[in-house]
Automatic annotation (TrEMBL):
Pfam families, per database record: Fasciclin
One record GO biological process: plant-type secondary cell wall biogenesis
Location relative to the cell: Cell membrane
Entry keywords, A to Z: Cell membrane, Glycoprotein, GPI-anchor, Lipoprotein, Membrane, Proteoglycan, Signal
Topology in the lipid bilayer: Lipid-anchor; GPI-anchor
InterPro entries listed in its UniProt record: FAS1_dom_sf, FAS1_domain, FLA_A
Chief localisation class: membrane
Lineage: Eukaryota, Viridiplantae, Streptophyta, Embryophyta, Tracheophyta
Protein name, entry field: FAS1 domain-containing protein
Residues in FAS1 domain copies: 39-183
Signal peptide: 1-25
Family under the similarity heading: Belongs to the fasciclin-like AGP family.
Domain of life: Eukaryota
Length: 252
């Protein structure tokens, strides 16, 4: 009898354990919490594409990569990057980048960054000149003109005519487009000649010198001259009269 009760108790325990195991196995697994998406890292995006090593080095040397990432984390309007591939940098004249100052290298990178996010269709309605991080868009500084014909986006700097060849990355905050040429700004590679200096004003001509009056010529003593002339006439008249009288007496 006692053995029978033990078997019943053991059976009940087995049934309970089997029920608990089945219940646990059927409970749905908890889904992992989604990772919060942070701002894009522009350098990491370019590295993943495996053909932007020259641009990455230029960004690292000028610390512009860190600046772009910081602005992506804080700016509300987003950014657009035109990324020349390695073959675009290779087509530049030898020594082009080495001839630039540190400031000019930074400006060159900034010239490839638009201050707002632009999807490809938005390039149809952009207002030229398009502002970049390089700053001033006035003539002779950093003008950038973007036009769209069909599905092709054309970019002109006044020195370079480039085309967007592919879309590398876009998330509504950052857009990265590959371009087939390095965008060369006029300000760096073809600066306007300085305005000619104003011609110096001619000095006023000095006034003519005041000439001292020349000394008056001595005035002849008119009275003395007239008296001498009269005396000579009287002598000649007397001589003539005397001669006439002598001749007359001779013939008498």
């Amino acid at each position: 009898m006692m053995m029978k009760q033990l078997l019943l108790s053991f059976s009940a325990l087995l049934v309970f354990l089997l029920h608990c195991t089945t219940t646990i196995a059927q409970a749905p697994a908890k889904s992992p919490k989604p990772k919060l998406k942070g701002p894009a890292n522009v350098t990491a995006i370019l590295e993943k594409a495996h053909r932007f090593n020259s641009l990455i080095r230029l960004m690292e040397n000028t610390q512009m990569g860190d600046r772009i990432n910081t602005e992506l984390a804080t700016a509300s309007g987003g950014l657009t990057l035109f990324a020349p591939a390695d073959n675009a940098f290779a087509s530049l004249k030898a020594g082009t980048l080495n001839s630039l100052t540190d400031l000019q290298k930074s400006q060159l990178v900034q010239f490839h960054v638009l201050t707002a996010y632009n999807s490809l269709p938005q390039f149809q309605t952009v207002s030229n000149p398009v502002p970049t991080q390089a700053g001033d868009t006035s003539k002779g500084h950093f003008p950038l003109s973007i036009t769209m014909g069909g599905n092709q986006v054309n970019i002109s700097t006044g020195l370079t005519n480039a085309t967007i060849t592919s879309s590398i990355y876009t998330d509504g905050q950052l857009a990265v487009y590959e371009v087939d040429k390095v965008l060369l700004p006029l300000e760096i590679f073809n600066p306007l000649p300085p305005a000619p200096a104003a011609a110096p004003k001619k000095a006023a001509a000095p006034p003519p010198p005041v000439l001292a009056p020349s000394p008056a010529a001595p005035v002849a003593n008119i009275t003395s001259v007239d008296a001498s002339s009269a005396m000579g006439l009287m002598i000649r008249h007397a001589a003539v009269s005397f001669g006439v009288a002598a001749i007359a007496a001779f013939f008498l």
